Amino acid sequence: MSTTYHLSSAEELTTDIVEAIKATFKSKPITIIIEEDDFVLTDEMMLKLDERLLEENPTYITAEESIQRLVGKYGL
Q1: Where along the chain do its domains lie?
Q2: What angle do CA 26, 30, 40 make, to 5 degrees?
Q3: Is 29 helix (H, G, I), strand (E, B) or coil?
Q4: Which residues contact 70 (CB under 8 A, 6 or more apart)?
Q5: For residue 45, which of 31, 32, 41, 57 is within the disulfide window of CB 3.0 to 4.6 Å?
Q6: Alpha-carbon span 15 to 26, nearest angstrom
Q7: Is the dihedral of CA 13, 16, 19, 23 positive or negative?
Q8: Residue 39: predicted pLDDT
Q9: pTM of the prediction?
Q10: What is the secondary structure of 21-50 as a DSSP string?
Q11: What is the distance between the alpha carbons of residues 21 and 30, in angstroms, rounded to a whole number?
Q12: pLDDT in tens, 24-56
């Protein structure tokens, strides 16, 4: 089982969240990973996105179509 909590800052971490984790997982082993959300688009990424926006006939597909193709090809 996997549960993800997204907090806008460490200040939002309350005892309620800790108690909810304890109540859900009881005596089962768990792993807690802390990651900073510091994703920033690079100039190269922004350039590629701008190029895609200028395409006359976009060749990209929706997320749903992408997932359907992966399921069809790999049985995910």
Answers
A1: 10-74
A2: 130
A3: coil
A4: 76
A5: 41
A6: 15
A7: negative
A8: 80
A9: 0.45
A10: HHHHHTTS--------------HHHHHHHH
A11: 9
A12: 999 999 999 888 877 888 999 999 989 888 888
**Arithmetic mean of pLDDT over the chain:** 88
CA separation for the pair 30, 3 (Å, rounded): 10
Tokens standing for residue 73 = 């090809």
Distance CA 30, CA 48 (A): 40
At 5, the amino acid letter reads Y
Q: What distance lies between CA 25 and its chain's CA centroid? A: 22
Contact 63, 71 (CB under 8 A): no
